[in-house]
Design goal:
The chain is α/β, with parallel strands linked by helices. The chain folds into two domains: 9-257, Aspartate Aminotransferase, domain 2; 263-394, Aspartate Aminotransferase, domain 1 (Alpha-Beta Complex), CATH 3.90.1150.10. It is built from 14 helices and 14 strands. It has helices at residues 11-17, 43-51, 65-78, 89-98, 115-124, 140-146, 169-178, 191-194, 228-242, 248-279, 299-305, 320-330, 360-365, 382-395; strands at residues 2-3, 21-22, 82-86, 106-110, 131-135, 151-157, 182-186, 204-208, 222-226, 285-289, 312-317, 335-336, 346-348, 372-376. Helix 1 (11-17) packs antiparallel against helix 3 (65-78) and helix 10 packs across helix 14. The model has no long low-confidence stretch (mean pLDDT 96). The structure holds pyridoxal-5'-phosphate. Pyridoxal-5'-phosphate binds next to helix 4 and helix 5. Pyridoxal-5'-phosphate is lined by residues 88-90, 93, 114, 116-117, 157, 161, 186, 188, 208, 210-211, 220, 222.
């Protein structure tokens, strides 16, 4: 096996070349090692490998060459020392928390987050004696005030789902570190292309690879990135012993997804910006949220910490749920689905789907009104996407 690509290439180059482990066959494309186990030449070699004295693979729950290639490419892309892949994004989020916590600890998290992440922090961790406090992530005083002597970690997502709020990562990292806590950032919406949480002070970054990393709606997956020490101390053994490992097949699909990520995400972001311009001020829309526009509520933070906008556009249709449903049903090209980051443009109504579990008051706090829709802009021609949205708005 030979590893290729040095660290100092630009992100686009690393996405294509980094982390490749070429077998003696000299294949051009990354090989799919669809194997559970590995054979040893001698009994002594098996013993040495289990003792850690002989480098090499033992069992694909622990490590697999295709999964390794995906982890190495992600680490190179993010600029992280180490990465571990997981079966889903939620496995990555859950492990990043559980790996650092024990009964008696406390977590502070921004309340605007992906529905299942909120479940883990608010409902699941407390069952094991880990208390949690949810705060308005944009209010730095709220983070400070939530700190307790036993606070171990902060968790946030930015831009947030679905209202695309942007939280100041560097400022929250400083508050976490002053409190002796770590900061985990769910960077799904921005991708490593547009935002580098580790460079801004975060200790751990997590992804649902299901979104932009696959980018073509095929496989579930997740990744946890951080320093070598963080990954080895908090994550590595936990994955090895509890088994939320990524399948080699999914790793192969996601590895190939990374090759085209920069091209896709830039194009989808340009199209999303075009859509935002086309619908700004539309009489059927009461509010438009797009990171990168000067009217975004945290425009200054977007400027400071992001290198690009978003592949998502959120907007509030006049007429509440009825208006939002009419709009979605009138779309012809953009399909109704809760997924995002796909090559196909998708629309979702958070209040009745992803955030249905929350009370109306909790939704209101997060800016999720009954009229809010979120469009994940795909790779279709931007004019066709804009035409579809404008025609559907006419029908409202
Ligand atoms: C989708 C998503 C997750 C969960 O990922 P899965 O791969 O669906 O388990 C977590 N956080 C954010 C921000 C997401 O969009």
């Amino acid at each position: 096996m030979s590893a290729s690509a040095k660290k100092n290439y630009r992100p686009e180059t690393r996405l294509v070349q980094s982390g490749t482990l070429r077998s003696p066959f000299g294949e051009t494309s990354e090989a799919l090692f669809l194997t559970q186990g590995y054979v040893y030449d001698t009994a002594a070699q098996a013993e040495a490998r289990f003792k850690g004295d002989d480098p090499g693979y033992q069992y694909s729950r622990f490590a697999n060459p295709t999964v390794d290639m995906f982890e190495r490419r992600m680490a190179a892309f993010e600029g992280a020392e180490a990465a571990r892949a997981t079966a889903t994004g939620m496995a990555a989020v859950t492990l990043s928390l559980v790996g650092q916590l024990k009964a008696g600890d406390h977590v502070v998290a921004a309340k605007a987050m992906f529905g299942s992440c909120r479940y883990v922090v608010e409902d699941y961790l407390p069952r094991f004696g880990v208390a949690s406090t949810l705060v308005d992530g944009c209010n730095l005083d709220a983070w400070r005030e939530a700190v307790r002597p036993n606070t171990k970690t902060f968790f946030l997502e930015t831009p947030t789902n679905p209202a695309l709020e942007v939280i100041d990562i560097a400022a929250v990292a400083e508050i976490a570190h002053d409190a002796g806590a770590t900061l985990i950032v769910d960077n799904v919406f921005a991708t490593p292309l547009f935002q580098s949480p580790l460079a801004l002070g975060a200790d751990c970054v997590v992804y649902s690879a299901t979104k932009h990393i696959d980018g073509q709606g095929r496989c579930l997956g997740g990744v946890i990135l951080g320093s070598q020490k963080f990954i080895m101390d908090k994550i590595h053994v936990l994955i090895r012993q509890t088994g939320p490992s990524m399948s080699p097949f999914n790793a192969w699909v996601l590895l190939k997804g990374l090759e085209t990520l920069a091209v896709r995400v830039r194009r989808q972001t340009d199209s999303a910006a075009t859509l935002a311009v086309a619908i700004a001020g539309h009489p059927k829309i009461s509010r438009l949220i797009y990171p990168g526009r000067p009217d975004h509520p945290q425009a200054a933070i977007v400027q400071k910490q992001m290198r690009g906008g978003s592949t998502l556009v959120a907007f509030e249709i006049k007429g509440g749920k009825r208006g939002a449903f009419r709009f979605q049903d009138a779309l012809r090209l953009i399909r109704i689905s809760n997924n995002l980051g796909d090559a196909k443009s998708l629309v979702t109504h958070p209040a009745t789907t992803t955030h249905q579990r929350l009370t109306p008051a909790q939704r209101a706090e997060l800016g999720i009104s009954d009229g809010l829709v979120r469009v994940s802009v795909g790779l279709e021609h931007p004019d066709d996407i804009v035409d579809d949205v404008l025609a559907a708005l006419e029908a409202v």
